[in-house]
Specification:
The protein is of the alpha/beta class. About 30% of the residues lie in helices and about 25% in strands. The protein has helices spanning about 40-45, 140-165, 180-190, 205-210, 240-250, 285-320, 330-340; strands at about 1-5, 10-15, 30-35, 65, 70-75, 85-90, 95-100, 100-105, 110, 125-130, 170-175, 195-200, 215-220, 230-235, 255-260, 280-285, 320-325, 350. Strands 3, 5, 6, 7, 8, 9, 10, 17 and 18 form a nine-stranded mixed beta sheet that branches. Strand 1 and strand 2 (about 10-15) form a beta hairpin. Helix 2 crosses helix 6. The longest helix is centred in the last third of the chain and has 33 residues, at about 285-320. NADP nicotinamide-adenine-dinucleotide phosphate binds near residues 38, 43, 176, 177 and 262.
């Protein structure tokens, strides 16, 4: 079973059932066990065409399978070193199963070398065996599905800002401060000396965002003018043109960097005007940072650092994040539509599954 979304109208969705295809030589069949869902997945669908997210898991013409992160089990394998029963973490379709072409199989996992995934970022093509994955712990599987890809980005942005000495600023301003990617970054920044972390959020999410305890100050989108105008960097998870314009106008030349990370406010995006004060918004391209740090630290050094940062972060999240477990097509459809329409309680997040 596949959850399909019309590429030209993200509200138009349906489920499709088909017989499992026969495996070609060297292929393996993954049974998708469970996966997490958050605004990040909606962004994958929003930018499905522009950033090739639809290409990972092709579907029939005009329809897409929105990528999700979760766990899968090898149900059938024509790939020598990949035994049936192996469990992996990785990028999956919202489907019951996924056929992959495993390559570079080793003790850590494998890459899906299917032709349609060639040329797509390698970070999305890898599947990690749970038994050797430095982040894996059986008791935090749900949080791994929900938070791991988000925290990975939070970690990389925190590292980028530290590496650049906060570009000479002392304040980091984060939009969609209630989102998990932003609060993960705030969690990391709050542990650094001399950084003031300011969260921008909607009025109805202000109390929640303050209750997280990782922002020095939380202001609503309507209160940007109340901020000091000492040097700051802007990390934009909302992608909201009006908010961006107000932040840039408020700080002007005191804005030292403007990083584009997300687009939770996908219905309020807009082109960047030439007249925007401050530095041009720059897309934060995570793979570039991964390449830099794996060269400098080595792959193992990189993974060890992330795993060390991950553990306290997960402990902190256990204190406030409520995991909503659900299964079946209608639960998935409901959770997806609520996210798409911004009907989000940021203190909760869904872990879902489809029938085998
Ligand atoms: N570039 C990268 O590598 C990368 C990696 C990870 C995540 N991201 C991006 O970071 C963003 C946050 O993702 P997440 O999964 O952490 O989000 P999340 O936890 O699901 O965030 C939920 C928050 O997003 C805002 N929001 C979501 N949908 C909305 C809507 N339709 N209308 C208005 N506000 C809405 C609300 O925050 P407020 O009320 O506070 O605005 C809401 O509390 C996403 O855009 C994601 O794609 C990017």
């Amino acid at each position: 079973m596949d959850f399909l979304i019309a590429k030209d109208d993200l509200h138009n969705r349906r489920f499709a059932e088909q017989d499992a295809p026969e495996l070609e030589p060297g292929q393996a069949r993954l049974r998708v066990e469970r996966f997490g869902l958050s605004a990040n997945n909606i962004t994958y669908a929003m930018f499905g065409e522009a950033m090739s997210y639809w290409k990972f898991f092709p579907a029939e013409d005009g329809w897409g399978r929105m990528p999700v992160w979760g766990f899968a089990e090898v149900a059938e394998s024509g790939a020598g070193q990949l035994e049936p029963g192996t469990r992996v973490y990785g990028y999956l379709p919202p489907s019951s199963e996924l056929v992959v072409q495993p390559a570079r199989i080793d003790a850590r996992g494998f890459l899906d070398a299917s032709a349609h995934r060639a040329g797509l970022p390698a970070a999305y093509n890898g599947y990690a065996r749970v038994e050797t994955d430095p982040i894996y712990e059986a008791e935090t599987e749900e949080l791994q599905m929900l938070l791991r890809p988000l925290f990975f980005t939070s970690f990389l942005i925190d590292d980028f800002l530290e590496d650049a000495s906060l570009l000479g600023a002392r304040t980091a301003v984060l939009s969609s401060a209630s989102s998990k990617t932003a609060s993960g970054l705030a969690f990391l920044l709050s542990r650094r000396d001399g950084v003031e972390v300011v969260g921008l959020t909607s009025a109805r999410r202000k109390d929640f965002t303050e209750s997280l305890g990782v922002y020095d100050r939380v202001v609503t989108y309507g209160e940007i003018e109340s901020l000091a105008d000492t040097p700051a960097v802007y990390v934009d998870m909302a992608g909201d043109a009006q908010v961006r314009s107000e932040v840039h106008t408020h700080y002007g030349d005191a804005l030292m960097h403007s990083a584009v990370v997300g687009a939770t406010h996908h219905d309020r995006m807009g082109a960047v005007p030439d007249s925007l004060p401050g530095p041009p918004p720059t897309f934060f391209f995570a793979p570039d940072r991964v390449a830099k740090r794996t060269t400098e630290w080595g792959r193992e050094g990189f993974e060890t650092r992330i795993a060390a940062a991950w553990r306290p972060y997960v402990q902190w999240c256990e204190g406030w994040l409520e995991v909503v477990r659900d299964e079946g097509p209608s639960a998935l459809e409901r959770a997806y539509l609520d996210l798409l329409d911004g009907k989000i309680d940021p203190a909760k997040a869904h872990v879902l599954s489809l029938p085998a």
